[in-house]
What we know:
The chain is α/β, with parallel strands linked by helices. The protein has 2 domains: 15-103 and 218-233 and 244-271, Rossmann fold (3-Layer(aba) Sandwich); 105-216, Rossmann fold, CATH 3.40.50.1860. The chain is 42% helix and 16% strand. It has helices spanning 25-34, 56-71, 83-88, 90-96, 104-115, 127-132, 134-142, 156-162, 168-178, 200-207, 216-230, 254-262, and strands at 15-19, 40-44, 78-80, 101-103, 120-125, 147-152, 188-191, 212-215, 244-247, 269-271. Strand 9 (244-247), helix 12 and strand 10 form a beta-alpha-beta unit. It is globular. The model is unreliable at 1-6 (pLDDT under 50).
Amino acid sequence: MTAPRPAAQHDPRPLGVFDSGIGGLTVVRELLRQLPDEELRYFGDVARVPYGNKSAETVTRFSREIAAFLLKRDVKALVVACNTASALALPALERELPVPVIGVIDSGARAAVARTKSGRIGVIATASTVRSGAYAAAVRALRPDVEVVERACPLFVPLVEEGWIDHPVTRQVAHEYLAPLEDHRLDTLILGCTHYPLLEGVLHAELGEGVTLIDSGRETAAAVRDLLVARGMTAPPGRVPHHALYLSDQPAAFTATAERFLGRALPPVEVVPV
């Protein structure tokens, strides 16, 4: 009798990542740091951003279209680096796609529940993500007794894209948004938008070092790493990966803003129709 073939230990195919815009490049930055051998294919739907003011049906349709585009690039897994798409479209993608799908919300919620000591967790996010209640639901599904306080911080997105990372205006806006959270004596705060990790310094200054900040992008990258290792799907070690960046439009001043998110020079950029 022929012995069964051992499971493959490596998979050279790329990882697919998408977001409604360029904020998901903070997730890509973490994937590059934690999984340096993996090739990445990133799609930023900047022609149709923001997703937060669109219906669940529309966000799901957009997500399906992007997933189909990335599957044609032979991706082995799909990372939904968009909080709105993770909240609204992830169940459909998980059900329909032939590859593993990882979103940012569950990863952030798991990390927050693991690290809180007081059981009081805050969430800051865009208004649409707060309205969805997705982070609170994910946290309470893991630990029902936790107190979850959510706060919409919509001005953080344009401030980050303007490059005002440590600007007096940004510090004042952070104070206005976060001061109401002080009465809740939070010990853990989920950064529920891919733009927000760039403001960690400002947030720590406002909240104090006693509050643990949960970068959902960082936690998502760790979840992707664990999944690939568990399934024997990691890239062959030691290769030089070639990344690709696809956009549905290329706005003015895109490169400088995108490189700020990514923390390095951009890979080749291709504008594709949606």
